[in-house]
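Please review this one:
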Amino acid sequence: MTSYTFAPEYELPHWPFLPPPELNSDKTTRHPIVIVGAGPAGLTLACDLASRGVRAILLDDDDTVGVRGASSRGICYAQKSLEIFARLGIYQRIADKGITWSFGRTFSGEREVYSFNLKADSVSVQPPFINLQQFYVEWFLVERVLELGLTDLRWNNRVTQVTPLQGGVRVEIETPAGSYTIEADHLIDATGANSPIRTQLGIDAHPSRSTDRWCISDVRFRKPLPTERWTWVDAPFNEGRGVWQHLMADGVWRIDYQMPEDCDVAEISKPEVAGARLREQLGPDVEFEFVWIGPYGYRDHLLDNFRHGRILFIGDAAHVVSPFGARGGNTGIQDAANLGWKLALVVQGQAGDELLDSYDAERRPAAAENLQVTSRSARFLAPRSQAEHVMRRAVVDLAARHPFARALVNTGRMSVANDYPAAPHLPEGAMTVQNIPLAMQDGTPTSVMELLRGNGGTQCLGLWFAPTHAQAAEAVNLQGSLPLRLLAVGGDSGLPTLQASEPLACHLGNPPPGSLVLVRPDAYRAACLAKPDARSIAAFVRRAMSLR
């Protein structure tokens, strides 16, 4: 029998348990924001709030990052998430450690059906995707949160009971030093797919009936493979089922093998079984060592509402989708970015509580869209009827010969930032603004995220295309009374001015001279005002941000 070697386990950081002050108090302390769960969504939210000068408590029942014994978990971080990380100050660490890619190949059997390059449609500073093991992203977020200094990050604090109150939430917590109780104005559940808070409150997540099963092999090869995303629709070396192949940090390859729903999860993750799959794929002489082998299964779910009074659900606690196209973890990170600036305005007293309703109004449709997209990918990769098998074979055959059919080969529509629907606070809806490289009038380089990051709080950007002196003079004083930063794009108005940028203008829909585009704190285009003046700008900012 062939023996297989394993690389040394990753040495993850551990943070100490510090007894919270409430353990020694008879009084129940009230806190504005309590976040439960230090995964990617919870950490991103805590970091976002801290970057806006807002304090929060973050509770986690462990003392480290990632999942004990697991290597990669989530690995594929999309451009919108990378732009969020740029604003939060950890993007460069992710880029330096991770693997940047934009090129992918799709195979059916032994035949390459088509290839793609995602970079072609991007104008952002950030690339379409970076692959990096999830624990590294969490690690970088923890260190950034600690650096910002406004988050009380409490390790080994397990929430045992949540009780909704009038205007708040009671939270009971168990620690190695004893139990205590606190209250929160707002509680954010970021505890993941198996949320104990959601279960305790009896909130139906509407899970799917079937479980999709996969087995991950994290592997180092002696001879490197191409740094590309390779996908097999029906791999002959995996009994005609799907396979994904990605490079991650540290020279580790992540290979996902689709498994039968009724498989024996212990059997499929034995080293000799996983090794046989690899040799079937890459040849009997391939030299490698395992870093980690692990089965995983998931069931889709989606809450009816992401807000229940003073409790808000983000990430997998609110929604789970299949992993095709990297729409799971990225959606949770983008939930946090949507919620962060809204919570900041509410707890700072600048906006009314109704602003938090827009979190559900925007992010639930985004999650529903992602669920629909990934469910279609799942059906394409695991047909449930003979007719679906026939359809898939026909599509793959067409795609190999005709470019128009390649869009029908659904191995996972890659994660993109979701548009938001029109609403009373957002008559035009909203669409993401990429992190376009820009320059100030004096040549100083900047970018959309740098401008948002430099606000020192929570402000909209008002990008005013070639305003007149009179227009600028009338509106400039709005900056003192509203969370708004005005910048001219071209012209000579007396406002701080960006050099005219064709990529920016094109990306924003080519606004005519004199018009003003409002960009929200989460880098979403909220409106284009064709004939702005001080009154119309103030009215729209107040409506879009539910200001008091």
Observations:
- The chain has 15 helices and 28 strands.
- The two ends are 72 Å apart (CA to CA).
